[in-house]
Amino acid sequence: MLRNGRNVEYAIACGTADTYYRDDTPLHPDGCYVARVSTLGMRPGDTVVACFPSVSTLILDGGDENTVNAVAQLPAYALGIGCDDTENLEMLWSRRKQQHDREMGPFLTPRMFPYSWLGLTARCDGFVFRIEDDPEAYLQYRGVDGTPYPDRTDIAVTLVWDSLAHDYAQEIVSFLTC
Known about the structure:
This protein has 178 residues and is mostly beta strands. The protein is built from three helices and 13 strands; from the N terminus they run E-E-E-E-E-E-E-E-E-E-H-E-E-H-E-H. Helices cover 14% and strands 37% of the residues. The mean pLDDT is 91.
């Protein structure tokens, strides 16, 4: 991952949503990870890029209601990348904020996330994000135990790959990155 064109520290962990069902049969990809970069310390206007420099063939795959994803087919693997659809989620946030929806509140910040997803990189090798607001303000959102919600301050990108030897490789990669 890059911040303003320079390497930035990030965490990577096994993805927990790693099961795809086909005809009631649970299937798992060869790899499913979530990469997270904290936006704390970043400033409005900063850009973050999550990319695969050796892959320049990602195409947008549509995502679902609240996510976006892109997929690529390499010589031996299907590869996918996915993240929150910040445009759609911000629209829902704004609407519910105007309606004073208690389920979504309290509304302590002007946005749901301090960043927005801008789309694919010019090389089609990953996603571009822009910091829109001061990430420190989003530390106000805390769980019952008092710890901040990392989903409010971290950019999380799901990475999934599977061997093309499996006839479901494209399906599983697309599904699990949505």
